[in-house]
Amino acid sequence: MSKQIDSELGWGIRWPAPAKLNLMLRIVGRREDGYHLLQTVFQIIDIDDGLVFHKTSDGRVRLQKEIAGVKEEDDLTVRAANILKHETGYRGGVCIDIEKNLPMGGGLGGGSSDAATVLVVLNQLWQLGLSKQRLMELGVKLGADVPVFVNGASVWAEGIGEQLTEISLPDAWFVIVKPDCHVDTREIFSTKDLTRDSKSIKMSEFQSGQVRNDCQEVVKNLHSEVNEALIELSQYGDSRLTGTGACVFVQFNDKLSAWKVYNKLNSKREVYLAKGLAISPLQKQMSELFNF
Q1: CA dihedral for 55, 60, 63, 64, sign (positive or negative)
Q2: Rounded Cα distance, 165 and 149, in Å
Q3: The domain 14-167: what is its CATH number?
């Protein structure tokens, strides 16, 4: 339980919605409802979107400014806030200001992370008292990746991505390239060529180097820009796709090695330099403000 808080605490400040990388992704089956069963490792990284929450007097959930190409009512942050209201009967409203830094359709989890930050922070600001487990259950309704960000740590995930187990990952830096294309997750998961019967592996097998992404072949065959980025990055290490893409990445053991590659690519591509994190910065900020 958190302590009783000042009713103004947490409003009007920036809350992080961090990105993730899938360090591996195996599709091991499919449920009757169409959801794919998978094994993956979610690595939280230190690049993020930022969300600011403002009180409103009309009981409505709205955005300070809409994201281009996304209707307000379809935005995951608006949907997340409305799910909280529906779940609890809360009658108040909120205006959500989103600082969008993470690319859409990039496989970095930006939309899912934004939604998770709404669930976690508004649960506290509205003093709803929902448990983390219940927030994760609500998050699944918004997207399979949302529970990971609600949980707030790098994890081994199974099921549709909601069965989470702690995993110890080595310190790492990543150079991430966003090809000039948008990859539709639904299209990838509906493609007939997608492998859906990979053998399940143990966590120790991943740690020993089994890092295949079953979506990579499909994505690079559909999007030449992704294939080109994978080839370019392969000069510097084992280049991999994150999630269903479009972003690709190479992992490094130290910042200097990653920085050198980042500088080589930064002038000609959309590229990010990121550090792997064990704990989400959202989780840390919640702890600092509310003694979680």
Answers
A1: negative
A2: 13
A3: 3.30.230.10
Which H helix or E strand runs over 188? Answer: helix 185-190
pTM > 0.70: yes
Write the DSSP string, 219-243: HHHH-HHHHHHHHHHTTSS--EE-T
> 235: pLDDT confidence band, cut at 50, 70 and 90?
very high
- Residues carrying an active site annotation: 20, 145
Residue type, 128: L
Q: What is the dihedral of CA 223, 228, 229, 230, to 10 degrees?
A: 90
Helix residue ranges, H only, the chain: 76-88, 110-125, 132-140, 146-151, 185-190, 203-207, 216-222, 224-233, 255-265, 281-290
Does domain 173-277 correspond to CATH entry 3.30.70.890? yes
Dihedral angle computed from the Cα positions of residues 150, 51, 121 and 72, in that order, rounded to the nearest 10 degrees: -90
pLDDT in tens, 134-184: 999 999 999 989 999 999 999 999 998 889 999 999 999 999 999 999 999
What tokens does 198 get?
Answer: 């990979």
> What ranges do the domains of the chain cover?
14-167, 173-277
Angstrom distances, CA of residue 287 to CA of 1, 95, 120, 223, 260: 12, 23, 12, 41, 34
Query: Which tokens hold the place of 188?
Result: 């990838």
Spatial distance between the Cα atoms of 84 and 27, rounded to a whole number of angstroms: 31
Cis peptide before 157 (omega within 30 of 0): no
The enclosing H or E element of 160 equals none
Q: What is the pLDDT of residue 191?
A: 93
Please enumerate in sequence order all residues whose Cβ is within 8 A of that of 101, keeping only pairs 6 or more positions apart, or say none.
47, 48, 49, 50
Which residue type does 292 have? Answer: F
Q: Which two three-digit tokens encode residue 216? A: 């990579």
pLDDT, tens digit, 9 for 90 and up, residues 103-122? 988 999 999 999 999 999 99
- Closest to 145 (Cα-Cα) out of 131, 130, 162: 162
